[in-house]
Amino acid sequence: MQSIKIFTTGGTIDKIYFDANSEFQVGDSPLQECLQEANVSFDFAIESVLKKDSLDITPGDRQAIRDRISSAAESKVLVTHGTDTMVETAQALADIPGKTIVLTGAMQPARLRFTDAVFNIGYAIAAVQLLQQGVYIAINGRVFDPFKAAKNRYRQRFEQVGREL
Question: pTM of this prediction?
Answer without folding.
Answer: 0.84
